[in-house]
Design goal:
The chain contains eight helices and 45 strands. It is mainly beta. Among the domains are: about 45-275, Galactose-binding domain-like (Jelly Rolls), CATH 2.60.120; about 460-525, Tie2 ligand-binding domain fold; about 535-690, Jelly Rolls (Sandwich). Mean pLDDT is about 85; it is low at about 1-30.
Amino acid sequence: MPGAALALRLPLPLLLLLLGGGAGAAGAQQPPQRGLFPAVLNLASNALITTNATCGEKGPEMYCKLVEHVPGQPVRNPQCRICNQNSSNPYQRHPITNAIDGKNTWWQSPSIKNGIEYHYVTITLDLQQVFQIAYVIVKAANSPRPGNWILERSLDGVDYRPWQYHAVTDTECLALYNIYPRTGPPSYAKDDEVICTSFYSKIHPLENGEIHISLINGRPSADDPSPELLEFTSARYIRLRFQRIRTLNADLMMFAHKDPREIDPIVTRRYYYSVKDISVGGMCICYGHARACPLDPVTNKSRCECEHNTCGDSCDQCCPGFHQKPWRAGTFLTKTECEACNCHGKAEECYYDENVARRNLSLNIHGKYIGGGVCINCTQNTAGINCETCIDGFFRPKGVSPSYPRPCQPCHCDPVGSLNEVCVKDEKRLAPGSCHCKPGFRGVSCDRCARGYTGYPDCKPCNCSGAGSTNEDPCFGPCNCKENVEGGDCGRCKAGFFNLQEDNHKGCDECFCSGVSDRCQSSYWTYGQIQDMRGWYLTDISGRIRVAPQQDDVDPPQQISVSSLEAHRALAQGYYWSAPAPYLGNKLAAAGGQLTFTISYDFEAEGEDAESVLQVTVILEGNDLRISTAQDEVYLQPYEEHIHVLSLKEELFTTHGTNFPVSRREFMTVLASLKRVLIQITYGPGVEAIFR
């Protein structure tokens, strides 16, 4: 009834099951982390219950108890009684609400004296919301239990599906319901199996008989319900569809040949349905994320008290800001939680993106690239998956953490010399805050003329080329051209040379046409970048030993790592990072380009934070030539990243193992058929760390 308290009516074996074990598992060690589930309550006591027929609803009606008319029964004061729904005497009223009020009263149907149609009576319970149903118990009152009937479930009150069939005999299971009977106490082979049983349709006891229907116990996944079992046990509406009253065998023969209205009323008045209690054991559907589900007195509905950072009436979604991982249901054996997105304090909401998760692009709150949380509406002029960078027109200075209250500062780009108002946003690329200058301008803010230009803010070209001349000021004096440059203004490469660049001390590169020609010209094609981290491995100088690095949870997608202990164990004489196939082959187009890589390390043991001196060497092999750069010393603190940029120019290389310089021809010969690219990073002796 509305407002009635939800009473706990839970058989002990089922209680043990729903608390995480099976019957007899009380002494077993339980998993430390498992889902949360509300208590199993009697949901019927708060349901709306209806029926299509009640004794005495059309006026006073006489009925007789079968138990008082069976020979040999010890009955005192046998007599017939009156039921009348409109009577002032409460003992004559038997409304359907009596079946769920918890009192010693009962509901009763009209007897078949009124017609054979009263074999067909339906009781419907509306639980007022969807619950997970564990069991249904039906207790008869002053008549035997129903003979043929169906227990049904529905989510919407329109489409009903069977839970269990009941028949007077096993034969009728096949004849009426086309289901092979399950003999003996009910048992189940599948989580969603619908059986037919005659176990609860016996004539005895003649009154106060009980029917116990378990929807979870005895099914294959009872200890940790499967999606099929969870769907099978979900219901808002429960319907008891009675189809045949259980009668004595002698009377059954009589009913088979005559209309009940033609039979002596003393016989037909004793056949009716009666129910003194319906218990529906179930719990709120909170998907393993709530231990309580109190009744809201305003809405008269139960609502999950969600935990694990979940929200919604059924805890069926992650709360705002907790979408680093997708929502998942908890189980009796496994706990799951929604994890907060790492927005560095700059956003309150986020969403989960499977593609971001697959590419390991989202940094979680533990500093690891696990999950797919994408922050929404980043504040303080921040942007990015984790609000880690800045919006256009702002930059985060070097050394400023994304977690700072106001990490992004306005760009200061000169409107005359800058391409736009967007500067380098963070320390991942070049110098943060540097503006993108128009040709002829330079400086962090592009507020000065570049070398070879004069007259800010116009910055017109000088008489001498800034890229091709050696003049300290290209705007004064006669033009002095670099070695491979010619022209009155030192503005073009000599024959046999190309690619005029200011940072080339000779001005232009020598053509390399494999001996076919000595003439070439600069190409205006655009070139791409190779950033593939798949297939890198560690090796020795001979290349015979290979050690695969790893990509830890803490590693971003473009980072690999190796333990120093593992590396030294396999490569005691020193090791090299070896590039995979995309970096090899004909790489002539890379001449004059750059090889850029980031190096860092962190100690495997806690408490170590000493600075290390690293020696960095790059080795290129191709066409039976091996060339290498001079060792470059890098001073690096643990967890600090060093971006190493190597210009691919012949003057930076020597023949490996010697001090002999590399000619242009030798350098291009190596690049024409690159077989190996090796990066050697030597750390101080005795350093036990994770190298990245």
